[in-house]
Amino acid sequence: MASRSDAADQNFDYMFKLLIIGNSSVGKTSFLFRYADDSFSSAFVSTVGIDFKVKTVFRDDKRVKLQIWDTAGQERYRTITTAYYRGAMGFILMYDVTNEDSFNAVQDWCTQIKTYSWDNAQVVLVGNKCDLDEDRVVSLEFFETSAKDNLNVTDVFERLVDIICER
Predict the structure, then answer these.
(1) Among candidates 24, 31, 57, which has minimal Cα distance to 151?
(2) Where would a tag sit more exposed on the chain, N or C end, judged by fewer CB atoms within 10 A?
(3) Domain coordinates of the chain in residue numbers?
């Protein structure tokens, strides 16, 4: 998935391992594709296990290589995906604003982060699919995004990188 030149590029000041986690079908893969490739597909393809993309960004005159892992949300992959939490600098914990169960699961995902990652890992909570306002069932606002409309996708990654750099 990562382009060969970007993945092999060794010219960077920092490298951050980031994970996108949350229930199945909340839009984690679409979110990653929008950020890394500026693309969107409305066709649903469930992630099997884990996948990743690499993107290099500039923050505060520093070249930051992001290794962004897209995890499967289904319970049956949990033992595989939690193994990747180790060494992650940041997590994007995503729920779907049209799916209350995905929001209710946020606490369980936070518990997994505390159990399987290091103490200083940073977490950003993201309510995705805000373009489907007529179907909204979760009214709390944090970072709200739409991979489809490219709304606030870059802002989430930039904020997470900023939080990590501030530590």
Answers:
(1) 31
(2) C
(3) 14-166
pTM exceeds 0.70: yes
Q: According to the model, what pLDDT value does residue 61 have?
A: 93
Give the Å distances, CA to CA, from 6 to 2, 20, 37, 72, 75.
Answer: 7, 20, 12, 24, 32
Q: What is the pLDDT of residues 17-38, one digit of tens each?
A: 999 999 999 999 999 999 999 9
Show the tokens assigned to 88.
């992650």
Between CA 37 and CA 34 the distance in angstroms is 6
Name which CATH class applies to 14-166.
Answer: alpha beta
Task: Quote the CA–CA distance of 123 and 114 in Å, as a whole number.
Answer: 11
Reading phi first (left if > 0) and then psi (alpha if -120 to 50, else beta), residue 94 is in: beta
Tokens of 140: 């709390």
Could you tell me the maximum CA-CA distance found in the chain, to the nearest angstrom? 45
Question: Which tokens in the block code for residue 49?
Answer: 């296990």
Which residues, 6+ apart, have CB-to-CB distance to 77 below 8 Å?
Answer: 48, 49, 50, 71
